[in-house]
Write a structure and sequence with these properties.
eight-stranded mixed β-sheet, alpha/beta, globular, two-stranded antiparallel sheet, 6 helices
Length: 216
């Protein structure tokens, strides 16, 4: 797996990461969603640097110009519900991409143990496509692996990009051996620790709740 940690170099991205972590700024759910969206936009630019390009001639009012334009057939798949702001940010830049949605959630066995339940799924065919799988939180890595297994029945992508906001070193290690070797992971920042409930520390809390309100 090719791992790209975006905050390994200082940029304006640091502002958005700091704000989604900050307990005071988190109280503004609209700002939280927008910051996740902006991180998605930055991630999209980084992914775009690895895509395939072809020269095309563009007509202007005063002549023509040859330009290199991306030609990948992209499908953007997000894990509901926390992935929606990240999905929107990436789609702002890959505006011609197809969209897929899948639900995955933790079904708790007890206070510290859980399994991932994957239910709803809607997607175009993935054969030969460039798949971008977006999930803001890469904690244990079980959700991403479960979703990837669920996608297998809908075609074989030509290439796979994972787009995440915050991850744990343990979660990254887990998915490295579960996804194809040529998969790219694009992640804004990485924390070292998971607590006994499988949440990232210091992390930011529950991204879905912060974006859309506390669930029942």
């Amino acid at each position: 797996m090719h791992i790209h940690i975006l905050d390994s170099k200082n940029s304006i991205l640091n502002n958005f990461i700091s704000q989604i972590r900050d307990t005071q700024i988190q109280k503004d759910s609209m700002r939280f969603r927008r910051n996740i969206e902006r991180i998605g936009e930055i991630t999209a630019v980084e992914i775009s640097k690895t895509l395939n390009y072809e020269e095309k001639e563009i007509s202007t009012p005063l002549g023509s110009k040859k330009m290199n334009l991306p030609v990948n057939d992209i499908v953007l798949c997000s894990i509901l519900r926390a992935g929606l702001p990240l999905h929107r940010g990436i789609l702002n830049y890959f505006d011609e991409a197809g969209s897929a949605f899948i639900s995955a959630y933790r079904k708790h066995i007890n206070e510290t143990e859980f399994k991932i339940e994957v239910e709803y799924f809607a997607s175009p065919n993935l054969d030969g496509k460039t798949l971008i799988l977006a999930d803001p939180m890469l904690a244990t890595g079980q959700s991403l692996v479960s979703v990837f297994e669920g996608l297998k029945g809908h075609g074989t992508p030509k290439e796979i990009h994972l787009a995440c906001v915050i991850g744990s070193t343990e979660g990254i290690s887990f998915i490295e051996n579960k996804l194809p070797e040529n998969t790219h992971l694009w992640i804004a920042t990485v924390d070292d620790t998971l607590n006994n409930k499988g949440y990232i520390v210091p992390g930011l809390g529950d991204a879905g709740d912060l974006a859309f309100g506390v669930k029942l």
